Amino acid sequence: MPDDSQSGYLTIMNVLRPPPASAVMRRYDLVLRDYVGEFRIGVWDHEKTRTQRVRVSLTVTVEVPNRPFVDDLDAVVSYEYLIQGVEAFQQSPHIQLLEVLAEKLLALCLSPPQAVFARVQVEKLEIVPQAAGVGVVLTGARDQSQ
Q1: Which of 17, 41, 61, 64 has most Cβ atoms within 10 angstroms of its Cβ?
Q2: Burial class of residue 2, CB neighbours in 10 A (0-12, 13-18, 19+)
Q3: Residue 133 CB burial class (10 angstroms; 0-12, 13-18, ≥19)
Q4: Is residue 3 part of a domain?
């Protein structure tokens, strides 16, 4: 074990100290950006007979104890649940409105207990040729009384 006079030892020990009581929790964002997939979505008859390309972007703010991350997947909220959820919605029955898909994705985003805020953006990519996409943005927060 090195003594306190060795270079870098004090710095390392300062990092390993528990955080001050005033900084018990911290937040960070999980991001799934510009996921493009085929979805059964739309209100018009011609939309009900085929899939459409939809871009999904999700941002989820999670709150965790304010301490250094452990290099272990089980110690964090993984973005994998977002990917699997979006893939599952691609297999779901037809949805008429983007607002409904966004609302379902918002519920997915807020499903882990550590999730405190989410932003969902869904866009149809082939509706308006002059635009990269048309769609909706939905935000929501976990009810703090839970």
Answers
A1: 41
A2: exposed
A3: middle
A4: no
Q: Each residue of 96-143: pLDDT tens digit? A: 999 999 999 999 999 999 999 999 999 999 999 999 999 999 999 998
Residue 93 belongs to a domain: yes
Domain span at 33 = 22-141
Distance in angstroms (rounded) separating the CA atoms of residues 143 and 146: 6
Name the one residue in this structure whose structure tokens are 């528990």: 18
Q: What are phi and psi of 9, to 5 degrees?
A: -65, -45
CA dist 40 and 52 (Å) reads 6
User: Strand order in 115-124's β-sheet?
Assistant: 25-39, 52-65, 115-124, 134-141
Q: Enter the pTM of the model.
A: 0.81
CATH number of domain containing 134:
3.30.1130.10
β-sheet bridge partners, residue 135:
123
CA distance 72 to 29: 18
